[in-house]
Amino acid sequence: MLLYRWLKDVTDERGSAKALVYRDTYLSWRGLLHRVDRRAQEFQAMGIQKGDWVGLMLGNVPDFVILALALSKLDACLIPLDPTTGTRELEMVLDAAPMRGLITRPRGGDTPQQPSGTLPPPRSVKAQPPKPTKPSQTPESRRRLQGTLLTCSIYKRATRPDSGEAPRVILFTTDVGGDPKGVLRTSGNLEASTKLITSALEMTPNDRILTAVPLYHAYGFDFGLLPGLKLGATLYLEDEVAPRRIAKVLREQEISIVPGTPTVYQQLAKIPTARALRTRGARFLSGGSRLEEQVAEAFRARYGQRLISVYHTTEAGVVAIDRRGQSPESVGKVVDGVEVRLTNAQGAPLAAGADKGVIWVHSTAVSPGAVGPHALKQPKARRGAPAGERDSTGWYRTGDLGRFDRSGRLFLEGREDDLVKVDGKRVALGEVEGCLESFPKVKEAQALVIQDPLGGPMVIARVVPLGRCKAEEIIDHCARNLAPYKVPRRIEFCESLGN
Predict the structure, then answer these.
(1) Residue 209 C-beta-side C-alpha neighbours within 13 Å
(2) Number of helices and strands (H, E) in the chain?
(3) Cα separations in angstroms, 420 against 15, 377, 486
(4) Contacts for 108 with CB less than 8 Å, ≥ 6 apart
(5) Which residue has the higher pLDDT, 292 or 456?
(6) DSSP strand E in 168-299: where?
(7) Which is it for strands 101-104 and 53-56: parallel, antiparallel or unpaired?
(8) Taking the model in full, what pTM does it have?
(9) CB 17 within 8 A of CB 86
(10) The pLDDT of residue 150 is above 60
(11) For 342, phi and psi rounded to 5 degrees?
């Protein structure tokens, strides 16, 4: 009940203040609490109870916040999901995190169907025969939430035995093999993460937070929803990235906190009519991918505000922040309450003269574990834990490579695996390559991420075709089998991948 308790505390102190603003409407804290209580009663009537796992496939709309808090009141576990999640990936999510309920718009609540073709796993994983759709993925009932178009699919689930502190939120990301990975967050993790963020950014109840990134991703959830609830700050919701509208909200509402991506700021800097913002103490956060110096300078020249680089992961929460915004190529200094160390690939201290190493993080915000296919593949965490796991002493291996300069600033220097980020979303290049090579007209393929001057980071592919083949055919095949942000935006044909 942590999030609901925060809501109750804030309502007692700031009941008539604005809690949520969405387009031309808003809810006060008192009004938000009233709607949350009504939804909690409705969920209870459906049979949802303490400890149940419930998925929520919605974008940045008021219903996301209302339903998330209603589940918190029942002490259920919230699982935010991308509403664009495809059928194949949704099946894997349901397999990894068996849910009692799944709330979606009409198209998302349909029973997952067996895909027409099964993609091969990355080259490092032995191929397995296709699996039929499991009966547990078929809902026993569906109910429409009163006064909405939302559907709640109810699944039959066995009661989970208590084993330590139960998760209160499960945030999905991608593992090294491209499979969904559900990162467990306990009440202790949520409290610790929120404390680290609000302290590092010196946030107050007077802040106005604009969520220019999805709440169903850890970046938006941690820097938007959690601080807003804890402090009673006003949360402005945007469910689509429309640069002109965002620029208008920034100016008219005097927004002071913006969790955004380099692509968002790049688009904002290109608005020809944009003028400098006069909001004092505004903190424009840039995370999810590398912030290029030219993007930071262009935004500063247009709006008169510095961009603040952030290093944040789903598993470890916030790690470092460039609070002064004076070094775009760095992610700043490690925040108070977090420890970071660098090692070689075997987990041993770096040798003298080594310029970079594997980043390990230790804090109370680090997740205790995860659910998903990777959990069955990995051995128990030891000192030499693999990327994406904790060792026996609680240190989390991020999989990122980094270095420190003499002043203690942290610089990210790539990955030790093939995971990359596209606007804050993880992409396993091996998964994309496996999809490409499953197309009958493709002999070999290589997936890459490039920085497009106009559109930001995007996936492209180099392909060795088998006979005559059109790029559109390959892209259509990928679009049927991959999430939209994983689909290559460009296909380059070549005679061999070595060329």
Answers:
(1) 29
(2) 13, 26
(3) 43, 21, 10
(4) 57, 83, 85, 90, 102, 151
(5) 292
(6) 169-174, 180-185, 208-211, 234-237, 257-260, 283-286
(7) parallel
(8) 0.84
(9) no
(10) yes
(11) -115, 135
